[in-house]
């Protein structure tokens, strides 16, 4: 797809009762970039991620994902409320009912966007490779009937899922741990497994929520290299939330800064580092804390 932006977020608003978590958030993410969403604690970063990935239905605004050769409205596939205009067009009404009944974050994933979470969410009692196979159940042909009959297409889908799992295990350097329980891996290895699991769903963009949290400096450096590999060798756009400013400035092509639910700056690392609004937001966030951008 030739469209320059893989993601276009316009006037995004998210309210939780009286809390205005996001107010008029607008930004674009370029295809093939590593981009970061930063800001002090409570700025609204995870809320943006939850809206992008379909875990929250935004209160207002639009999110367009241009992947897999088509454009997907994330807000629409989650199932919007009915409006008067729906009843003027049968096609529109049927589509609205379809998304109301069968819509959800799985459709955002199918449209080409995958994510990891701030708190690791692996199946810790399952093996490493099983975690990757479970992630692919939406892609593979695994209907009950084809499974019982063990059809050729079912076997082929199983084989492909296994090949894909081992392919990504190699990329994240976990092949030798494939039969270990996920819960037995070190924290850094579990974070890498989460990335492999997300990549097994063949996304064009992956959203990483604080991937370096809890990692030591050498693990953080290895993670940064892996993120570059995703961008450079696998044509994957990466959008991350990260508090490790060294890593953010080191790997990002583009940075969006949020504060109190609003975008206060956008640009390359050099612009962001010296932006007075950004420095003030970080200094104001933790009084007395040293800030180095
Ligand atoms: N499910 C929710 N219900 C109510 N309020 C919420 C919910 N999720 C987020 N908020 C509020 O929205 C605001 C933004 O929170 P969010 O977690 O998005 O910030 P953040 O930038 O990701 O913070 P951190 O860096 O600490 O993870 C906060 O005031 C938070 O309390």
Automatic annotation (TrEMBL):
Family: Belongs to the ABC transporter superfamily.
Keyword ATP-binding: yes
Molecular functions per Gene Ontology: ATP binding; ATP hydrolysis activity; L-isoleucine transmembrane transporter activity; L-phenylalanine transmembrane transporter activity; L-valine transmembrane transporter activity
A Pfam family per the record: ABC_tran
Domain of life: Bacteria
Gene Ontology cellular component terms for the protein in this record: plasma membrane
Keywords: Amino-acid transport, ATP-binding, Nucleotide-binding, Transport
Domain (ABC transporter): residue spans on this chain: 7-285
Naturally occurring in which organism (per UniProt): Marinomonas piezotolerans
Gene Ontology annotations of biological process type: D-alanine transmembrane transport; L-alanine transport; L-isoleucine import across plasma membrane; L-valine import across plasma membrane
Name of protein: ABC transporter ATP-binding protein
CDD domains assigned to the protein according to its UniProt record, in alphabetical order: ABC_Mj1267_LivG_branched (cd03219)
Entries under SMART domains matching the protein: AAA
């Amino acid at each position: 797809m030739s469209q320059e932006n893989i993601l276009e977020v316009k006037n995004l608003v998210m309210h939780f009762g009286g809390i205005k978590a996001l107010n008029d958030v607008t930004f674009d993410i370029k295809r093939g970039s590593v981009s970061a969403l930063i800001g002090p604690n409570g700025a609204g970063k995870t809320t943006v991620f939850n809206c992008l990935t379909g875990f929250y239905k935004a209160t207002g605004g639009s999110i367009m994902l241009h992947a897999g050769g088509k454009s997907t409205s994330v807000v629409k596939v989650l199932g919007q409320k009915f409006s008067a205009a729906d009843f003027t067009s049968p096609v529109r009404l049927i589509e609205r009912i379809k998304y109301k009944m069968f819509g959800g974050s799985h459709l955002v994933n199918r449209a080409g966007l995958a994510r990891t979470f701030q708190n690791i969410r692996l199946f810790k009692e399952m093996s490493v490779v099983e975690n990757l196979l479970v992630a692919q159940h939406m892609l593979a042909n695994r209907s009950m009937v084809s499974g019982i009959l063990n059809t050729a297409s079912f076997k082929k889908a199983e084989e492909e899922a296994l090949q894909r799992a081992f392919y990504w295990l190699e990329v994240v350097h976990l092949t030798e741990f494939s039969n270990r329980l996920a819960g037995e891996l070190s924290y850094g290895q579990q974070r890498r497994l989460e990335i492999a699991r997300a990549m097994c769903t063949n996304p064009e963009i992956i959203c990483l929520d604080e991937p370096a949290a809890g990692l030591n400096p050498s693990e953080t450096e290895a993670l940064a290299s892996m993120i570059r590999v995703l961008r450079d060798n696998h044509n994957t756009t990466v959008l991350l939330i990260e508090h490790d400013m060294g890593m953010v400035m080191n790997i990002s092509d583009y940075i969006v800064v949020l504060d109190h639910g609003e975008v206060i700056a956008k640009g390359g690392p050099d612009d962001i580092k010296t932006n007075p609004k950004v420095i003030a937001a970080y200094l104001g966030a933790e009084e007395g804390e040293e800030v180095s951008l």
